[in-house]
Specification:
The complex is a heterodimer of chains A (335) and B (490). Chain A has 335 residues and is an alpha/beta fold. Chain A is 24% helix and 13% strand. Chain A folds into two domains: 196 residues, 3-Layer(aba) Sandwich (Rossmann fold); 119 residues, Cytochrome-c3 hydrogenase, C-terminal domain (Cytochrome-c3 Hydrogenase, Chain A, domain 2). Chain B contains 18 helices and 16 strands. In chain B, helix 4 packs antiparallel against helix 14, helix 8 packs antiparallel against helix 14 and helix 13 packs antiparallel against helix 14. Classes of the chains: A alpha/beta (335), B alpha+beta (490). At the A-B interface, helix 1, helix 2, helix 3 and strand 5 of A face helix 2, helix 4, helix 6, helix 7 and strand 5 of B.
Chain lengths: 335, 490
């Protein structure tokens, strides 16, 4: 490929939060960072001067093959309703449904990226009774299909790259674009849900600062408690694919560090968990959602053992919003 | 439906607003004679929320909007707090205010540097003496100040990592406070972060200490300050453009302004008190929330019941409805069109300079942008006070017990204006949830009486140059409201 990676970014049935998140990328010069990585924004809703007829001219040039499109980034779900017409989002000034534009542009794109869980799976916009018949580019929740169909492949031969998250992490987007610009992104870089493996092969649990509480099953009981959020507060971090606690958010943050549950926002269907988000569903007092790759009986046995071995410090701090029992200073010259 | 016109323009898609927007303009003799505002996308959050556990609203509503995410959370938390009779402890109130202020000020910065100022780099202004300097500072992706502001914004939003875990879409805000206690050492670090942002504002935006900005009480003082160094700092550069392009007269709004008041204080009241301000009366009136209605006459939504108070509001799409031209309902206060935003907040909260400027010029492109900048100067020192007021060993949050049956109203201010949530619960589930967002007010369609909304009024008279398909004056006016279309229609 000669020249920079030409990126077109369009928004449909979402909140624009993935664009706002993108601008939080950890760099002292966002615009220079992209340029130096060989990423050229043909157009982005928050960052470009072109407006109205200027944008429509660009879209036409891409559809007609006059302007090269290397990466089509779609943010937001695709709104197929009402009755398959796509009229819940007509792209302003064009008289055409956004889903038609996305279908046409995707045939010209070397790569297609679903930026965020709405574009990947439907996400929050597909919640409740899904009033707008929202779906992802290539998934309808966890079912392959979506707007473009399970068989869709972009010019590069790849399926839609699902940079899922709600919002998605700026690093996930930029690292994907940088890898594409380098020509170093192929089918092996995608997990079974077509998410980039560099973040989806991690679990949110990895690096969680509540780890000591988890080990002892010393659990938070109310918001702002310091304890583990899994047993009572709805946290799914041990099952959810993302590197949120090793690649932090907005400096030093993550959901669990912010004091609330991981709600599995990188996973298809997270918007309808079938239980209140802030409560852990249980069967006979035991959370249903245990770590996926651990025998359940072992988990229960270990949990029971570790609960009985919980240090007083961990037990009390877990249900407080600040340290009430500090680590003892008893020994020096630790071995 | 419209008067005979020389030309009809459909302007869109609009960027550097949040979400998608089209504006239909009837142009006569080089001026806009009539405008219709079309919010082009519908997602149906009010339908999605039906039947959910009430507390789940705190997961869904921030995702209405990626730029007003925290504002949506605060409105929801306040509605649930009223439903459950829950009061935040002082730490929870301060932490919530800090999170909300961080978002609001980030939005003001984003609006000025990324959304609004770049339009002055357009070739249409190439003959103006300041154009090369505008390009140097504000050209998208290249402008020196655009890049510096993006970096300052990124650093500023690290406050969110500490206070709320992430932005957008934190779940740290609860009816009973904040889930993220702040310890004493963190508080010291957060104060340093705020000082870093203050330094950006004092060097780049104002080229003046914030306290001196707050002391500019009249327009005469403002223009004296401008004359000292007309290109010194980015706000004075904007004022130079105001003079040259007569932005003080461009885009006049309806002259009625609403603020709900914001940054609730532990002892009661607000750091920025609310109210309704009317041009001419120069007197603040209480905002009567019982007099709020939404009129769906020109929305593609069912309107058989006529204008409704949000507690009784309905949201049912009717995409083929005759007379519809937007997905947005028309909110009215006592039947009247109002404008909301930083300008309304600062009028209600007695900012002498904003009151003086609005008395002379009304709500226009100039006064809207000025009010936003002055709010930056006013709120940063408040945040420093709130951080100092945190008591690290005292509670940040109390648990939320919500009744199965009841209702609640939650009001707050997003960067772009007044945001209200109304929730009704039955059998422990959400039976109705209605949201009236700032740009629902500002970009309202006509109501049953045919009265145009605030932007629709503000666009009338805007100049359209020969051959313009996307008139630059229209862009200035639209963006001066800092619109958020994904909030408008949710």
């Amino acid at each position: 490929m000669s020249g920079p990676l030409n990126v077109l970014w369009l928004q449909s049935g979402g909140c624009g939060g993935c664009s706002m998140s993108l601008l939080c990328a950890d760099t002292t010069d966002f615009q220079g960072h992209l340029r130096d990585a060989g990423i050229h924004l043909l157009w982005h809703p928050s960052l470009s001067l072109a407006c109205g007829d200027e944008l429509v001219t660009l879209l036409d040039a891409i559809v007609q093959g006059h302007t090269r499109l290397d990466a089509l980034c779609i943010e937001g779900a695709l709104l197929r309703g009402p009755q398959g017409t796509g009229r819940f989002h007509m792209l302003a000034g064009t008289g055409l449904p956004m889903i038609d534009w996305v279908r046409r542009l995707s045939t010209r794109a070397r790569h297609v990226l679903a930026v965020g869980s709405c574009a990947a799976w439907g996400g929050i916009t597909a919640g409740g009774d899904n009033p707008t018949d929202a779906c992802g580019l290539q998934y309808d929740d966890d079912q392959p299909g979506g707007l473009l169909g399970a068989g869709f492949r972009s010019g590069s031969g790849l399926p839609v790259i699902n940079v899922a998250g709600c919002p998605t992490h700026p690093g996930w987007v930029i690292d994907t674009l940088m890898a594409l610009a380098l020509g170093e992104f192929d089918a092996h870089a995608l997990d079974p849900l077509n998410r980039p493996r560099f973040y989806a092969d991690q679990l949110v649990h990895h690096g969680c600062t509540r780890n000591e509480y988890y080990e002892f099953k010393a659990s938070a009981e109310k918001p702002s408690d310091l304890g583990c959020l899994m047993e009572h507060m709805g946290c799914k971090g041990t099952q959810v694919h993302a590197d949120c606690n090793t690649r932090l958010w907005n400096g030093e943050g993550s959901c669990t560090r912010g004091g609330y549950a991981c709600i599995a926002c990188t996973e298809p269907g997270f918007q309808e968990p079938g239980h209140p988000f802030h409560e852990t569903p249980k069967l006979a007092g035991i959370p249903i959602g245990l770590p996926t790759d651990m025998p359940k009986a072992w988990f229960v046995a270990l949990a029971s053992l570790s609960k009985s071995a919980t240090p007083k410090r961990v037990k009390h701090n877990a249900v407080s919003d600040h340290l009430v029992v500090k680590p003892a200073v008893r020994k020096t010259r630790l071995k | 439906m419209t008067s005979p016109s020389d030309t009809r323009l459909i302007v869109g898609p609009f960027n550097r607003v949040e979400g998608d927007l089209a504006v239909q303009l009837d142009v006569q003799d080089g001026r806009v004679a009539s405008a219709q505002v079309n919010a082009t996308m519908y997602r149906g959050f009010e339908q999605i929320l039906q039947g959910k556990a009430p507390h789940d609203a705190l997961v869904y509503v921030p995702r209405i909007c990626g730029i007003c995410s925290v504002s949506q959370s605060v409105a929801s938390a306040r509605a649930l707090a009223q439903l459950g009779g829950i009061a935040m402890p002082p730490n929870g109130q301060h932490a919530t205010n800090l999170i909300l202020a961080t978002e609001n000020l980030a939005d003001h910065l984003t609006h000025f540097y990324l959304f609004f100022m770049p339009d002055f780099t357009r070739p249409v202004y190439a003959r103006h003496p300041w154009h090369a300097e505008a390009v140097r500072r504000f050209a998208p992706n290249q402008g020196e100040q655009v890049r510096a502001a993006t970096a300052a914004r990124q650093r500023w939003l690290t406050l969110m990592g500490a206070l709320g875990g992430k932005w957008p879409h934190t779940q740290a805000i609860e009816p009973g406070g904040s889930t993220r206690p702040i310890d004493a050492a963190e508080r010291v670090r957060l104060l340093a972060h705020v000082r870093e942002f203050r330094a950006f504002l004092e060097r780049q935006l104002f080229a003046t200490p914030l306290e001196s900005m707050i002391e500019l009480h009249t327009e005469d003082m403002l223009w004296d300050w401008h004359a000292q160094d007309p290109l010194g700092g980015d706000l004075r550069f904007f004022l130079t453009l105001v003079r040259d392009l007569q932005l003080e007269a461009l885009g006049p709004g309806p002259g009625r302004y609403l603020s709900y008041g914001t940054y609730a204080q532990p002892g009661g009241g607000f750091a920025l008190p609310g109210g309704v301000w009317r041009a001419g009366r120069a007197r603040l009136e209480a905002a009567d929330t019982a007099a709020i209605t939404e009129d769906a006459t020109h929305a593609w939504l069912a309107d058989g019941a006529g204008p409704l108070h949000p507690l009784l509001g309905q949201t049912r799409p009717e995409p083929d409805k005759a007379g519809g031209y937007t997905w947005n309902k028309a909110p009215r206060l006592g039947g009247e069109v109002i404008e909301t935003g930083a300008i309304a907040r600062q009028l209600a909260a007695s900012h002498p300079l904003v009151r003086d400027a609005v008395a002379r010029h009304g709500g226009t492109v100039y006064t809207r942008v000025l009010a936003r900048a002055l709010e930056l100067a006013r709120v940063v020192p408040m945040m420093e006070d709130w951080l100092r007021a945190l008591r690290p060993t005292e509670p940040f949050c109390v648990p939320s017990e919500l009744p199965d049956e009841g209702s609640g109203m939650g009001l707050t201010e997003a960067a772009r204006g007044s945001l209200g949530h109304w929730v009704v619960t039955r059998h422990g589930r959400i039976a109705n949830y209605q949201i009236v967002a700032p740009t629902s007010w500002n970009f309202s369609p006509r109501d049953a009486a045919g009265t145009p909304g605030a932007l629709e009024q503000a666009l009338v008279g805007a100049p359209v140059r020969d051959g313009e398909q996307t008139p630059v004056a229209v862009q200035h006016i639209v963006r001066s409201f800092d619109p958020c279309m994904v909030c408008t229609v949710h």
